[in-house]
Amino acid sequence: MRNFNHLYYFHVVSKLGSVTAAARELNTSQSSLSMQLKTLEGQMGKPLFERSGRSLHLTPLGQQVSHYCRRMFDIAGELDGFLHRREHQGKSTFAVGVSQDIERPFVTDILAHAISTGVRKNGQRPVVTLASHPHEKLIAKLELGELDAVLSSQPIHSNTARTQLEAKLPVKAIARAQKGKLIRHLLKDDDVGLVLPTGEMRIRWEIDGFLTKKRIRKNVAFESNVMGAIVRACVDGLGIGFLPEAYVLGEIRRGTLMASRESLWNHRLYLSSRKTSSSEEAKSMVQALSSQLEQFVRV
Predict the structure, then answer these.
(1) Which of 11, 100, 133, 166 is paired with 154 by a 20 to 30 Å CA distance?
(2) Cβ–Cβ < 8 Å for 266, 260
(3) Please, what are the domains in the chain?
(4) CB of 226 within 8 A of CB of 203?
(5) What CA–CA distance (Å, rounded) separates 118 from 20?
(6) How does 85-99 read in b/e, with b if 16+ C-beta sit within 10 Å?
(7) Average pLDDT, whole number, for the chain?
(8) Using CA atoms in the order 83, 84, 85, 88, what is the torsion angle rounded to 10 degrees?
């Protein structure tokens, strides 16, 4: 029999197209993963990958093996889902993945409303799990059937997933509310710094583009890859931030933050799900999540 670990490692590498990304997903070293792939290729008698620059591409044999692996591990994912449901005493389950640059309270509010309107099985709501991962890991987990849906700031391009909704979130400049001052005054004040996401986050690329276009040059006062910390830094008066209004609507309504009158640009969120859902309950939850996201964006 073939070593299923070797086949699974190959499956993950073929999905992600990178040994580096796959090693991170599998929590192993690149050298160990490369050795496992070489062992599998030795058993096959031919290479499964060919390298083009920094990218890996499947050979014709690799494409055939990948096809069988996808079928095999899709079934394994269904089995895992079945066992997971049994652990919850017959309750239906729904697993959602969220990219790390999305504000958690915003997602929790949407999810809570989706749960209340989603399908019930035997009078019970589904057991919902929410996990946050980098974008590449979200793709892998969705393709492997470990997630039912993904909410990310980047679209997911995959043969096994579909985009259910592309939501546009208006971005505004925000700062601690100060009597007699407006955002436009603070943008011109050289003593007021910027509160920004770190460089690996998609919204930071958008902010940098906006600042360049408007020729705004200000010192950075605070940076973080945690969206909640950015909101808090603005509330505490560390500087001006740029966030989707939906992320800070509560703070604006309570008067702890003020926002620019007009939207500066639209930040996009993408809700994706597997093309072949494991249950009708999961399909219903995806629809409910999509509906609630649309409503929150309109608000």
Answers:
(1) 11
(2) no
(3) 4-83 (1.10.10.10), 90-167+268-298 (3.40.190.10), 169-267 (3.40.190.290)
(4) no
(5) 38
(6) beeeeebbbbbbbbb
(7) 84
(8) 120
